[in-house]
Amino acid sequence: MRRCACIAVLFSVLLLQLSSCARKSLSPDELQSEITTALSLAADADSSLRLLREGRLLSTFFEGHIEKLSDEARSASQELRSRAVADPVMALQVRECQRDLDVLIAALAIAGQHSGTSLTDAGEQIAATHKALESLAAAQ
């Protein structure tokens, strides 16, 4: 009897593990929220970079803030990658948002070094990503 109880517990744990591995579906509202998050991160990075260039932001604050934005962008990208999308139009929007987040993450890494030319390049990439995400959000 005890052996059956142990097997039942192990089977239940296995079922829980398997069900947690399944990819959760992404709803249209959740996609809108993810796009809004990405847009917010890009806008924040764009503003922070502008303030740094204008001398209105301390470089130590900028470095920490860029690191925080990078972490949040990576988390948002991972969230999108972990979700299932059945609708082909939504799947395209998810891929666009992921691509924009990847570009933003790369630009933030460059901006974190904040040297002259690389800062300009990062700023251009961040501004372009910001515009792309605005277009994606407007298409929702």
Q: How is this fold's topology laid out?
A:
Layout: H1 2-21, H2 28-53, H3 59-81, H4 88-113, H5 116-138
Helix pairs in contact: 2-3, 2-4, 2-5, 3-4, 4-5
Short synopsis of the structure:
The protein is mainly alpha-helical and 140 residues long. It is built from five helices and no strands.
CATH topology assignment: Four Helix Bundle (Hemerythrin (Met), subunit A)
CATH class: Mainly Alpha
Helical proportion, percent range: over 70%
Quantity of strands, as a count: 0
The coarse silhouette is: elongated
Q: Taking Cα atoms only, what radius of gyration do you get, to the nearest Å?
A: 20 Å
Unreliable stretches, pLDDT < 50, 5 or more residues? 8-20
Output the number of helix runs.
Answer: 5
Q: Architecture, according to CATH?
A: Up-down Bundle
Quaternary state of this entry equals single chain
Average pLDDT metric: 87
Largest sheet: none
Strand content: under 5%
Tally of distinct domains? 1
Broad structural category: mainly alpha
Please report the distance between the alpha carbons of the first and last residues: 57 Å
Taken in chain order, the helices and strands follow as HHHHH
Task: Note down, in words, how this protein is organized.
Helix 3 packs antiparallel against helix 4 (88-113). 23% of the residues are buried. By secondary structure, the protein is mainly α. The chain is built from 5 helices and no strands. The protein has one domain (26-138): Four Helix Bundle (Hemerythrin (Met), subunit A), CATH 1.20.120.
